[in-house]
Design goal:
The complex is a heterodimer of chains A (about 650) and B (about 325).
Chain A: H1 4-7, H2 18-24, H3 26-44, H4 59-72, H5 77-121, H6 123-138, H7 142-172, H8 174-189, H9 193-203, H10 207-231, H11 235-243, H12 248-259, H13 261-281, H14 289-299, H15 303-330, H16 337-361, H17 375-389, H18 399-420, H19 423-437, H20 440-455, H21 459-489, H22 491-506, H23 509-520, H24 524-548, H25 552-560, H26 565-576, H27 578-598, H28 606-617, H29 620-640
Helix pairs in contact in A: 3-19, 4-29, 5-6, 5-7, 5-10, 5-16, 6-15, 7-8, 7-10, 7-13, 7-14, 8-10, 9-10, 9-29, 10-13, 11-12, 13-15, 14-15, 15-17, 18-21, 19-20, 20-29, 21-22, 21-24, 21-27, 22-24, 23-24, 24-27, 25-26, 27-29, 28-29
Chain B: H1 2-22, E1 43-48, H2 52-67, E2 72-77, H3 80-89, E3 94-98, H4 102-112, E4 115-132, H5 133-138, E5 164-168, H6 177-183, E6 188-192, H7 196-208, E7 214-219, H8 223-226, E8 229-232, E9 254-262, H9 263-268, H10 270-278, H11 283-294, H12 300-310, H13 312-316
Parallel strand pairs in B: 1-2, 1-3, 5-6, 5-7
Antiparallel strand pairs in B: 3-9, 4-7, 4-8, 4-9
Helix pairs in contact in B: 2-11, 2-12, 11-12
Classes of the chains: A mainly alpha (about 650), B alpha/beta (about 325).
Chain lengths: ~650, ~325
């Protein structure tokens, strides 16, 4: 944040005079203004947390809404004729897919996965896909995997449909684009946890609620990328198409959509990945499947069983990610319609043959004797770790001692300082930070979001959560930048890191929680630790990409000028990679918040706990207010750290 | 051409929407899980709560339903209060262990009649405040709430901010602890561990180092077999003393745990429903299975099998003719 003057978009050269000099002295002006306001505020407004007179109590009205819904759900036409059918449609379609998957049996599904991967991505990924599905079966997770897959298929189809429609509208109409863009941007930074409560309110716990939460969570990337792809269409090509007399519809289908297919596939890829991560979190509201197994295992501190269900999730993620990404790359090559049709025919035939053969030889279920139990060895390993690392390790101290120190020396002071600050000073601080990094518009959103948290009367818990986020982000950035720079300087480190990052980025957030409890005990420290582990891969990856993206010519010329490696890093690479580093900060903040909130399950307290409490006690007033505050906090943090130009997509 | 077709498409989709929506009312009390009754199997969906005792009930019921009665059993993990809602909507067929939810009972059993009582589980539950027995032996007077303040220092942690720590568990559990601490004027801070898993891990860590701690806990619970704990006496429970959540200043009651069935399932659920109504076992049995699951890390199926093999006389009585 020190080099701010150069980062703010420079005023256009033509407008010399007061405007230009204003832009040049922006940082100074800002800081002076803030200092003046600080003095004025302390004299005029006084000290203290958010004033009670400015709050709105929503407990009563929200409680009434919740009661009304429960009392009228079986009789009111809104439910009988709309939500009820929606819910039944979801149940029916998930069930349909599930029955097809069960009927195909393990052999059929595995063969289909392998053959599809072969068709769209080549032989290597086909082998990966087959192995992945077999491992799911060997771990004894075949049925939960199929349940998750069935839910995913429906959720992804719905998300893609919804996203494509919204994206088409936004891509073709400027007005729709202007309205949708900020909404989609915001939806993409919201923690998954905040989506769960509203759907539960309407649909109750169960698969329909889980599917709808997943759709709402996963559709935005599809919509965003469709719109962007359509809007970026080459003007020359469009002009040519128009001059050839193509109608609007013809132009759309023969020029615009084909030109945007790369973005469309990227959107599909992101939608699938987000749907998977949500399908796991949605186990809290009754999604069933693999996520539910993880959730149940965590209830009895069974890291081994949680891992047995977590591995299939990771494998599904890796296969889906690689296959859709490879499909995107392949699209560049010229299509060969004849051979493609033949290939698909072979694939379909192969699936049917595999399913039928397996069915006649044995049953469709995975044979009981072929499963391997990894629960015991994993738990032994975890037990050994806790026995030997938890406490009383000579010199360095045990992990529990670290957690205690981290809480006492970092988390407590940050939280106390934030809560000690007068409310208007917090708002002022946010405004200054947002202006330094972003624009007036981001500043306004950030300040309004924070003020809304005060109005909702969750000021103190929100600051508690904020302190955890800040501490987590600090650790993430220090570690992430260090590793990222190391990876960018050595291709061997990068090659070593890549598979690790891939796996870590697709692991369900749940699985991180229990090992951190085993290592750090209960409280805010483990919540922050889980958040750091979760956010680290994205930060490392963006940092590495940013550093590698620095123009080699510039690097070469700096070297020829006699710069040492360290000087080069400090004076050339880091300043040039600044946009990427800011993006890493932004992503780090968003991802840390997402997990700190889930940390309410391991003693993180504050907003996350209130959200869990709301779900668990059916006390939707508490939960919804906490959920809204989480959304607002995420919005604030995102806007404050938002560089002027955004890259598309979550993570790297 | 495009222009003439747009309204046509709009009209058609509107008509389709009306057709779908207007074809009749959806039955909101028949919201079965999409994974139920797959391929002709008769399925029972049971709600599993997050604590291991409840998992033990479900594991044994599941084993017997599958091996003796030929059903397929789906289990869903749902917290206590939302489980009532799911039971009412038919998303689950039965809850096997309920710790007393008078509001929900009034709403669903008495008013809406979508849930029916399934009788008692045979286990009596009790919530309380506990200290480890090794600490209570050294300091016998800690077991009276009036002396707790003198020990506040011993129970202090990084999370409790200068006060003694009262470790609480999952947000879904029945608790009056915040009100209790306030109304009894204790120098303690309630620290919510957020989930039972987290709380158990924490208690085990304390016990390993023989550190003192004060925790919200409940009986029957398998952890007592590993970490012996002694209850701290709170002001005695009297009928109705916990009526107003804000003003509670008395101990928790002893609750006979109950089973509840979805009303439709209770009527038309056949042998499965009868079996679940008959299902009733003792604290000791439940603990045995729970301990196998949570401590020996056996899979619930294996633990259930072991209990079933050893206790045929008990479960034979539950199987309907």
């Amino acid at each position: 944040m020190t080099a701010t003057a150069s980062a703010t978009p420079a005023a256009p050269l033509g407008t010399a005079g007061p405007a230009a000099s204003l832009a040049r002295h922006r940082t100074t002006l800002l800081l002076t203004g803030a200092a003046v306001l600080l003095v004025l505020g302390s004299v005029l407004v006084g000290h203290g947390a958010w004033p009670a007179s400015l709050t709105v109590d929503l407990d009563g009205p929200l409680g009434d809404v919740s009661d009304w819904i429960i009392d009228n759900r079986d009789t009111h036409p809104l439910f009988l004729y709309f939500f009820g059918h929606l819910s039944n449609a979801v149940v029916l379609s998930v069930r349909g897919v599930y029955l097809v998957l069960l009927a195909a049996g393990w052999a059929g599904v595995t063969a289909a996965a392998g053959l599809i991967a072969w068709r769209v991505a080549g032989l290597r990924l086909a082998v990966t896909a087959v192995v992945a599905f077999l491992v799911c079966a060997v771990l004894g997770m075949w049925v939960p995997t199929m349940q998750t897959l069935a839910l995913m298929v429906i959720a992804v189809l719905a998300s893609v449909g919804l996203g494509a429609v919204l994206g088409l509208a936004a891509g073709l109409s400027d007005r729709v684009f202007r309205v949708l863009r900020p909404v989609l941007d915001t939806m993409q930074v919201m923690p998954a946890f905040a989506y769960l409560l509203p759907v539960v309110l309407v649909f109750g716990i169960g698969v329909p609620a889980a599917v709808l939460a997943t759709v709402v969570y996963a559709a935005p990337p599809m919509a965003r990328l469709t719109a962007l792809g359509l809007r970026d269409a080459d003007a020359g090509v469009m002009e040519a198409a128009a001059s050839l007399g193509a109608t609007g519809r013809q132009r759309l289908f023969t020029a615009r959509l084909p030109l945007a297919r790369r973005e469309l596939l990227l959107g599909l890829n992101q939608t699938i990945m987000m749907a998977l991560s949500m399908a796991v979190i949605a186990s809290v509201i009754g999604a069933g499947g693999l996520g539910d197994r993880v959730y149940q295992a965590l209830a009895s501190v069974d890291v081994g069983a949680a891992l047995a269900a977590g591995i299939p999730i990771v494998l599904l993620a890796v296969v889906l990610d690689r296959v859709t990404a490879a499909a995107g790359h392949r699209l560049g090559a010229a299509p060969r319609p004849g051979s493609a049709r033949l290939g698909w025919a072979v694939a379909a035939a192969g699936t049917v043959v595999a399913a039928v053969v397996a069915r006649t030889v044995a049953s469709t279920g995975w044979p009981d004797g072929w499963t391997a139990d990894i629960t015991r060895p994993v738990n032994t390993a975890v037990g050994w770790m806790t026995d030997h690392l938890y406490s009383g390790v000579p010199v360095v101290g045990g992990t529990a001692d670290w957690a205690g120190r981290f809480t006492t020396w970092v988390l407590d002071p940050v939280r106390d300082a934030l809560q000690w600050l007068p409310w208007w000073a917090v708002l002022l601080l946010i405004a200054v930070l947002a202006l330094l990094i972003g624009t007036w518009r981001t500043m306004l959103t950030a300040v309004l979001a924070m003020a809304a948290i005060g109005v909702l009367d969750v000021w103190d818990p929100a600051l508690d959560t904020l302190s955890q986020v800040l501490a987590g982000v600090a650790v993430t950035l220090v570690a992430g930048f260090a590793v990222g720079i190391a990876a960018s300087r050595s291709s061997r480190v990068e090659a070593l890191l890549r598979p690790v990052l891939d796996v870590f980025q697709t692991m369900p957030q749940f699985v991180y929680l229990i090992p951190v409890v085993a290592l750090f005990g209960v409280g805010r420290a483990p919540a922050v630790a889980a958040a750091v582990i979760y956010a680290l891969p994205a930060v490392v990856r963006i940092t590495t990409q940013g550093m590698n993206g620095v123009d080699p010519v510039t690097m070469e010329s700096s070297r020829s000028l006699g710069a040492t490696g360290f000087q080069q890093l400090l004076k050339v690479q880091l300043p040039l990679a600044r946009p990427a580093l800011l993006l890493a900060v932004n992503q780090g903040v968003v991802l840390v918040l997402a997990v700190v909130v889930i940390g309410g399950l391991v003693g993180g307290g504050s907003l996350g706990y209130s959200a869990v409490f709301g779900l668990a006690q059916g006390d939707l007033a508490t939960g919804l207010v906490a959920g809204a505050a989480i959304v607002l906090l995420g919005l604030m943090l995102d806007r404050v750290t938002q560089p002027t130009r955004r890259r598309s997509g979550k993570g790297a | 051409m495009a222009r003439t077709r747009t309204p046509v498409v709009a009209l058609a989709s509107a008509a389709a929407l009306v057709a779908v929506a207007g074809c009749g009312a959806a039955d909101m009390t028949r919201q079965a899980s999409p994974f139920a009754n797959a391929r002709g199997a008769k399925t029972v969906t049971l709600s599993v709560q997050s604590w291991v005792g409840a998992q033990a009930n479900v594991a044994v019921a599941e084993y017997l339903l599958e091996h003796e009665l030929g059903y397929r059993v789906d289990t869903v993990q749902i917290d206590e209060v939302p489980a009532w809602d799911a039971l009412s909507q038919g998303r689950v067929d039965a809850i096997l262990e309920d710790w007393g939810h008078p509001d929900q009972e009034a709403r669903y059993v008495r008013d809406k009649k979508t849930i029916r009582s399934g009788g008692e589980l045979g286990v009596t539950g009790h919530i309380g405040w506990f200290v480890p027995t090794y600490f209570a032996k050294q300091h016998p007077d800690v077991t009276d709430w009036r002396n707790l303040d003198t020990y506040a220092d011993s129970f202090r942690t990084a999370e409790s901010g200068g006060k003694g720590q009262l470790l609480d568990g999952s947000p879904s559990y029945v608790t009056n602890d915040k009100a209790l601490v306030k109304n009894l004027g204790l120098d303690y801070q309630v620290v919510f561990s957020g989930s039972e898993a987290a709380q158990i891990t924490q208690i085990k860590q304390f016990a390993k180092e023989k550190k003192p701690f004060l925790t919200y806990w409940y009986k029957p619970q398998w952890l007592f077999e590993q970490v012996p704990m002694t209850e701290v006496k709170l002001p005695a429970y009297k009928e109705g003393c916990d009526a107003e959540p804000e003003k509670v200043a008395c101990a928790y009651p002893h609750t006979p745990l109950k089973k509840y069935l979805n009303a439709r399932f209770a009527g038309a659920g056949g042998r499965a429903a009868t079996f679940l109504k008959n299902f009733s076992w003792g604290t000791e049995d439940q603990n045995k299975v729970a301990l196998m699951i949570a401590d020996q890390k056996m899979s619930p199926q294996d633990a259930a099998k072991e209990w079933v093999d050893a206790n045929e006389k008990k479960w034979r009585a539950w199987i309907p003719e």
